[in-house]
Amino acid sequence: MENVKNVIRNWGSIEVDENGKVIGATADFYEYFMIMPTDLIGKSITRIIHTSSSFSLKGLDHKHVFSGVISGHACFIRVFRREADTLYTIIIRQDELEYSDLVYFTNSLEKNKIKKNSVVQGRYSFEEIVGKSKEIERVKELAARIATSSSTVLLTGETGTGKELFAQAIHGLSTRKAQPFVPVNCAAIPDELFESEIFGYEAGAFSGAKKEGKPGKIELAQHGTLFLDEISELPYQAQGKLLRVLQEREVERLGGTGTKNVDIRIIAASNRDLRTLIQEGKFRQDLYYRLYVFELKIPSLRERQEDILPLAHHFVEYFNNKLGSHVKEIDPKLQDWLIQYDWPGNIREIKAIIERGMNIVDGGTLTLESLYFTPNFILEVPSVGINNPFSGTLDEVVGNAEKSAIQRALKDSEGDRSLAAQKLKIHVASLYRKIAKYKLK
Ligand SMILES: Nc1ncnc2c1ncn2[C@@H]1O[C@H](COP(=O)(O)OP(=O)(O)OP(=O)(O)O)[C@@H](O)[C@H]1O
């Protein structure tokens, strides 16, 4: 327990009234989060501490600890109830912590409080996979056909093509749909933590382990689906252990003496060619053949150009709802450009481009200029760094437009960041992140 105390530090507190409006903050909070009192006082706390959309700050118990994002920093925050007022004290800033300390800390919290989101029911169904091209229709049909079996599925395709979406849709159509869908991003877990995360551990298996032990993702997915995203990044040793689970349908926790039967369906995904990795000795051939029972290759957006505009319209609708904007159409010139672009980041990229455009657009039509920004303004702000703001990669051009939009909003709001964020229709935390990213004053 001493160690847990060591990782906790006071990053300042925010005080709110009974209506959830900020009435003050400590001096260290302003300093650590670089927020001005004018950007804070009187604002709703939900605009300062961003949590997942399903999470409500209302009614949290005294001393409850939760995770949230403040000014772009992921934090753990403790609630102190004081009669009508509430104090939110930031006790951990994740970017200031070693990963192992963070794991130790989250383990020390009561069960299910923070890790609730690690087990989710699949959210997407096949109807929500936008696209009518024969290429995507064929994949949807195959996926729907195998959904009802319990076979292992390997989803391949470039980054951003929708592999996770398909995994969720397959789970949602299977007989396991009422059971958990447990996603694991194999690239995001450090090698040394991998086995304990996937296989779980028994009490006292290693120093820092939870007293009562911990189930791994395989156990959490019991009777449901385990989605192993970016499986190519699975450490070689863990590959052997996973293979044994697949073959024997049993799992043994680290430090354990007995095995438990497992009934899970595995869906794995990779955007790297596993066959090449096998040749390079980085991926086990025997595991590959276990996973390769059924391969679904999701086509890139380049291979199904006719889906580009339906996807763009879909995301315009999506962001209209999310941002409260009223874009009704996409200008024909922008439509031409969208069709011609080759989309290396696939659907994730088109979604991001539309989102950026929708943050900048003025009026009911999304135009090429909404992405690039109006030429007059670019002349006014030479600091965009290039003479021709339309040259460079799409990311650079859009980045320049975004930077210009922020500069203009800040200028129009005379430096009031909250007002600027409102004009841009983005959260103030997101504005702070972008100001830091573009090194703006
Ligand atoms: N056909 C589609 N219709 C609507 N949204 C989609 C579609 N395909 C992908 N998306 C959206 O695009 C984004 C990227 O999709 P997803 O995360 O499933 O891709 P991925 O192939 O798993 O990427 P990676 O290989 O990088 O993990 C998500 O926000 C997803 O909701």
Automatic annotation (TrEMBL):
<dbReference type="GO" id="GO:0006355">
    <property type="term" value="P:regulation of DNA-templated transcription"/>
</dbReference>
<dbReference type="Pfam" id="PF02954">
    <property type="entry name" value="HTH_8"/>
</dbReference>
<dbReference type="InterPro" id="IPR002197">
    <property type="entry name" value="HTH_Fis"/>
</dbReference>
<dbReference type="InterPro" id="IPR058031">
    <property type="entry name" value="AAA_lid_NorR"/>
</dbReference>
<dbReference type="Pfam" id="PF25601">
    <property type="entry name" value="AAA_lid_14"/>
</dbReference>
<protein>
    <submittedName>
        <fullName>Transcriptional regulator</fullName>
    </submittedName>
</protein>
<dbReference type="GO" id="GO:0043565">
    <property type="term" value="F:sequence-specific DNA binding"/>
</dbReference>
<dbReference type="InterPro" id="IPR003593">
    <property type="entry name" value="AAA+_ATPase"/>
</dbReference>
<keyword id="KW-0805">Transcription regulation</keyword>
<feature type="domain" description="Sigma-54 factor interaction">
    <location>
        <begin position="129"/>
        <end position="359"/>
    </location>
</feature>
<dbReference type="Pfam" id="PF00158">
    <property type="entry name" value="Sigma54_activat"/>
</dbReference>
<dbReference type="InterPro" id="IPR009057">
    <property type="entry name" value="Homeodomain-like_sf"/>
</dbReference>
<keyword id="KW-0804">Transcription</keyword>
<keyword id="KW-0067">ATP-binding</keyword>
<keyword id="KW-0547">Nucleotide-binding</keyword>
<dbReference type="InterPro" id="IPR002078">
    <property type="entry name" value="Sigma_54_int"/>
</dbReference>
<dbReference type="InterPro" id="IPR027417">
    <property type="entry name" value="P-loop_NTPase"/>
</dbReference>
<dbReference type="InterPro" id="IPR025662">
    <property type="entry name" value="Sigma_54_int_dom_ATP-bd_1"/>
</dbReference>
<dbReference type="GO" id="GO:0005524">
    <property type="term" value="F:ATP binding"/>
</dbReference>
